[in-house]
Amino acid sequence: MRAVALIGIDGSGKTTQAHRLAEALTAAGRPATYHRNAGGRRWLGRLAQRLGRPDAQRLVGRNGTLAVESVLRWLAIAAALLSCLITGRTAVMDRYSACQYASIRAHGGQRWERLARAGYRLFPNPQVTFLLTVDPAEAYRRIERRGTDHESMRWLTAADTAYRTLPEYPTFVVIDAGGPPDEVSHRIRAHLTGWLPADEADPPASRGTSPRDTGPPRIDGAWPRSGDPLPAQARP
């Protein structure tokens, strides 16, 4: 397993779950490394405020924000993949290329998406991409509680819609991330029974009841057996 990616809107718990997954894989004898592939939007927003601007777009404009974010995330992903290629460890990606495509769509900069896809096409597809879903209102409450940054409900709703309209969406393993972190962790591990020992993964009965959250994606019309490795997730 080369890489696993966790994606979703801000406040969905990507960072917490990515750290936990890297630890679980390592404990199971599959050394893994956490990588935070941020696009620098939070950093750019803080810089804007220090310079007397309310946000990044007021500092460098929408196109400038998307350009900076796309380049920084590309460099972060490239560095993560190179590191894991050298060390042989599994890369647990906190954000991946789909996050950039969703950000671009949420910003309304569709023409930038074509350029981003051309650049990010160099990167291999993760074996599994988990989309952590949470109601934007709950995501907003989580962000406000942590107190390190701020996102508007309008942005969170737009980002949620963007993820669901990506052409890659049918290939994602959708995880309901609205519950407690332990519950979300169990759901994620239940989809990785091919790489985690049985006692590290939940039995099928403990998984969510959503049709998209009751097992791995259907492959050739059949559900993979619980002991089979999950096939690589194809991308359009």
TrEMBL record:
Ranges where the record places region Disordered: 195-236
InterPro entries associated with the record: P-loop_NTPase, Thymidylate_kin-like_dom
Pfam family, one: Thymidylate_kin
GO molecular-function terms, A-Z: ATP binding; dTMP kinase activity; nucleoside diphosphate kinase activity
Domain of life (superkingdom): Bacteria
GO terms, biological process: dTDP biosynthetic process; dTTP biosynthetic process; dUDP biosynthetic process
Domain Thymidylate kinase-like as annotated: residue spans: 8-188
Keywords: ATP-binding, Kinase, Nucleotide-binding, Transferase
Keyword Transferase: yes
Keyword Nucleotide-binding attached: yes
GO CC list: cytoplasm
Record-stated family: Belongs to the thymidylate kinase family.
PANTHER family noted in UniProt: THYMIDYLATE KINASE, UMP-CMP KINASE 2, MITOCHONDRIAL
Name under which the protein is recorded: Thymidylate kinase
Biological source species: Micromonospora rhizosphaerae
